[in-house]
Each structure stands twice: as structure tokens, then as C-alpha cells.
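quick one before i forget lol
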Amino acid sequence: MSHVSADLARLGSIRSGSLEVRLAQTMAEIEAAQRLRYQVFYEEMGAQPSPEMQAEGRDFDEFDTVCDHLLVIDHNLSEEESVVGTYRLIRREMAAKRGSFYSATEFDVSRIVDYPGEILELGRACVSPPYRGRGINLLFRGIANYISRYNIEVMFGCASLPGVDPDSIEMPLSYLYYYHLAPPALRATAVSDRYVEMRRIASHEIDPAAAMIEMPPLLKAYLRLGGFIGDGAVIDHQFQTTDVCIIVKTDLITDKYAKHYQTMAREAPATTIGLEE
């Protein structure tokens, strides 16, 4: 059975025209979010579903039973089709119920877990194609509310680059290592049996501007918020991606990028910001 937050009223919601961002309130809404994840990750992006997922047309796992599901809802659509964006949010107490965070399947996140303040794992971000400009921005606004409500000090999660050949993305991987490596106290490391070296080329061969052009949009957005990257990448054959661990310490977000973040969310431009797990 999936989890429905008991703190919905205190978190509140955000409206923008027919769109609303809030936490899931019912099992039907959670299942709608899982159907959206299936459509985006498996049907659109080519991930490999389990037989059970394929039969039900939903993306689900055991972490769905303990997390908060942040949703973007279009009230102009039918109830079954109204969930057009989603993000999975897992706080420390939620992960304790499962014994670990989802990221721990790919990265040693013990240093993050040892951090004394509240931490939040972000994952399973996706938005229906027609809504990818406004939808992802509304999700970010919802996350901002969530951070404030729970006094989140560190956010982290798996961020994806396309493909399973690290040599084909040697520039962005190397750039992330040399320019955005997390400080030791928060540095997650890819688990030893899945560790992929990020230093694919020498530091003097990196063109930062070219690397950022190749960077997936969501990962780029995290970097602009002051995000750090863990040591080592992981190949995710199910999702056909190369994953890195992103870490954002909320008190290190500069005024410049905080204003950019707020403006981006308020104006909700029509451009796609991006979708990674």
C-alpha cells in the first residue's frame, strides 16, 4: 500500500490557472502519478519495465509506500488524466521505514545520512510532454514549500545523463568531477561494484561552456542552485541512463540563483527544463 501524507493541510498548495501543485491526497492520485511515470520513463524514454509494471502500466517500487508524492494537477482534465507532473520526496524518517534511501542502491550516501540536519531525497521527476515548461516550474515551487515546511538543509538524489556509454558523455562527466565535486563531508560515492570513473578526460581538455551545453536541463538547473556532485557515476541499465549523485545544501544557494529560481517559477516559461530520474 502506498503512502499518503498526513500533513497535507499544513503544506498547502499552489495554483497557476488550471494547474495546482500539492501532495497526493488519495491512492488514486498516487496510482495516476505512477501511470505518468510509466508513460514517460518506459514508453517515451525506453526504460525496461518489470512484467508486473508492464501488466499494470505503472512505475512503482517499495519506496512509493513511504514517500510523499508531489503532484501537478490540471483541473481541466478528467480525474484519471489530471496528474500531469510528479516528484517523489523522501525524508529521513521515511527512509528509516524502508531501511535506506533509494539512492543507496547506487551510491554510498552515509555521509549525507550522517548530516545532523533534515535531509530530503528527490527522485522520479517527470512531467507530461505538453506541460514541461509550466509543470516542472510548479514542481520546483512545491519543493520550495516543502523545504520550508520541514526545514530541509540538504537535498540529494540520482540525476541522469542519457545513455549507458560513459565515453559518449566524457565531457559533461569530467566537467562535473573537476568543477562540481562535493566537499568531503557530503561526498557520496558510487558503490564499489558499480563505480564508473567520471574523469574521462584531463582537466585541461574540458571546455566548460561545451560541457554545459551537453548537460541535461534538470541537472543543469541543480548546478545553478549551487549543487554538488558525488564521486563516481553508475550505469542504470533499466532506465538506460548514466547516473550521478546530486547534492544541494540549501544554505549555500546564492542570492543570485535564489532570485533566478523564484523568477523561473513565477514566470513559468514555455521551454522544457528537463526530466531525469
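fyi The CA atoms of residues 117 and 219 lie 24 Å apart.
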